[in-house]
Design goal:
mainly beta; Thrombin, subunit H; 2 domains; 6-stranded antiparallel barrel; 13% helix
């Protein structure tokens, strides 16, 4: 079984080499961001997810394919399978009931693992907001992480998990730059000096502010821009009660 799992990891690593993702940034510290999860549909990279419970991953509702989803946990380098990484089938999917695929409103989904993750120094859960009003504030500095293209929109992915500095912008500021599509269920962040920005296919990458998960990269970053307009994230704090209810009842 272990040999089969490692063989699958090798194939997934080869598939990862064809997928562009984050723009710029720096290599995440080895002991940080151990909650990032690479989600695959078959052998094709689909989205980034976040481990929020030993049995549950949080990602985007529009990352819900018809085919089988797999999760790779504890992997820093998608091109070189790590023996400490964990491969899991995704058992059940719970898109938010009011998800609107046309507008990307409520673009959030919980996915249950077929077998619990083994938490270690390589695999950890992220902290969630304690209540719906514990949300990131404008001008708050956050970290965005994911496996993304550092320089070019269609360039090769980096060898390792990348991080970058971004700053939350106010709803009014974001709405001025993005007059269509923005809702109160979304939060915006943009690059700061020496920071990073999200890029094509970086769907679901976590936005962590003061150690708490506050956003999942949803839309607006397909241009791989270095500046305005801000990138749009699902505002995780708005869904904390739903997240807890789904986990508790399933």
């Amino acid at each position: 079984m272990k040999l089969l799992g490692f063989a699958v990891l090798l194939v997934l690593a080869a598939a990862a080499s064809k997928t562009p993702r984050m723009l710029r940034g720096f290599q995440c510290p080895d002991d940080a961001h151990r909650w990032d999860v690479a989600l695959y549909e078959g052998f094709k990279f689909k989205c980034t997810g976040v481990l929020v419970h030993k049995n549950w991953i949080l990602t985007l509702a529009h990352c819900n394919p018809k085919g089988q989803l797999y999760a790779r946990l504890g992997q820093r380098n998608l091109l070189q399978p790590d023996k400490m990484g964990q491969l899991r089938l995704l058992k059940r999917r719970f898109p938010y009931p009011k998800y609107n695929s046309a507008t990307r409103d409520n673009d959030i989904m919980l996915v249950k693992l077929s077998m619990a993750a083994n938490e270690s120094k390589y695999v950890r859960t992220v902290c969630l907001p304690d209540y719906p009003t514990q949300c990131a504030e404008p001008e708050e500095h956050c970290i965005l992480s994911g496996w993304g293209t550092r320089f070019l929109k269609n360039g090769p992915p980096p060898d390792v998990l990348m991080c970058g500095n971004v700053t939350v912008v106010s709803y009014a500021t974001c709405q001025a730059s993005r007059p269509k599509g923005l809702t109160p269920n979304m939060i915006c962040a943009t690059v700061t000096t020496g920071g990073t920005d999200a890029c094509q296919a970086d769907f679901g990458s976590p936005l962590v502010c003061s150690g708490v998960l506050q956003g999942l990269a949803s839309w607006g970053f397909e241009e791989c821009s270095y500046s305005d307009p801000p990138n749009v994230f699902i505002k995780v704090c708005k869904y904390i009660n739903w997240i807890r209810e789904v986990i508790a009842s399933n």
